[in-house]
Amino acid sequence: MIMIRGGSVDGPPSLGWGLPESDFYAISTPQVQAALTQMAGAYPRIWHYRLYDTVSDPQGVIRAWLAEHAAPLRDEPIPGRDFLRLQLFQTQEADNPTVCPPDDGPDVSFGDALILRGQGISPEVRAGETLYAALCWEAGPGLDQHPAGLRTSLRLYRVDPDREVLIAQQDETPLPPTTTWETGTRHGTALALPIPAGTPPGAYRLELIVYDPGDGTPLPLADPRAIAGQRWPLIDPVDVALPEEPPEAPRPLAVFDYIELLAVQLDRSTARPGESLHLELAWRPRPNPYRDAYQAVITLRGEETYQAWVRPPGGPAYSTGDWAPGYPVLEWERLDLAHDLPPGSYTLYVSLERISDGLPIPARGGWLPWPQREQVKLAQVEVRNEE
Description:
Elements lengths: L7 E2 L16 E2 L1 H14 L2 E6 L2 H4 L4 H9 L1 E8 L5 E7 L17 E3 L3 E8 L2 E3 L3 E10 L11 E10 L2 E10 L13 E9 L7 E11 L4 E2 L13 E10 L12 E3 L2 E8 L3 E2 L4 E10 L8 E8 L4 E6 L17 E8 L7 E11 L5 E2 L1 E3 L10 E8 L4
Helix pairs in contact: 1-3
């Protein structure tokens, strides 16, 4: 993406004291039209970020040019003190076949609605940054069977020996929507997947799902490399590296030895027996000469019932002894509740223990300097039998 700043259209030459380095300046109508023509010839989309443009462009030169030479795709008012407006336009460059080149790899058919003809994706990304995917599609004969259009879901998974962990997900509606695509035409889409800053470094798998938003049903994939007949592995592996600098983090909720517990997020506070809760924990190691391999023990305790899950907090490939000081580490857990779990009130706790001998690591809370307890309370959970 390239950001271009415009001046005041047909404004007086004295604007900004007539200095070219000023942050406000005059620009003529021919200069504006020439710049827009150049942009439209080089890029398939133009985002128009409108802020006080009735002042900087009182005759609406930019708006008139876009209305004549580009197709509107999105118009999003942003309420607030200044009431911004963000508009997206598609230019004729979107029809250039070089924008959507074919790929040397095999084509991938999502049902009979869409065919993935090519892709451009970087296999490396840093935690805290955004992974971009440029995809080339061909509209299939069955696309008209989806009157609500289709959506894409870009997902990043960590594949452990015993499970798959969903790290990031971004769902998008193609622009222009697939309801406007004609059979046999090709269209390029650009997807962006933000990677959480605390994602542990390592190898991940990038997947793509196409689904009908009307009922949420993914389109089937006949290719034997598809996962569960619905998920297409775009890149395996994607290498995620640490951020260039440690990101800012909140004050810790608790500290186990040299490892801080920064944040807790539970997807819901009520569940039925046999359902799953999704827990996200954020950890951060302090600089410390001593390091060891710890595992997290997550327990759900009721008056007479106890259920536990034991996992290395950074995943099996990123031991706590290898954590980089100052860099947060996210832990994602799916807590499958037992089918015979009695209804009632439960408390969710976490503790750390040394893997080598099971030694519990005492936790101290917040600013308190002395060890307080072996377990830290995370949340309350109500287990109910009713719907």
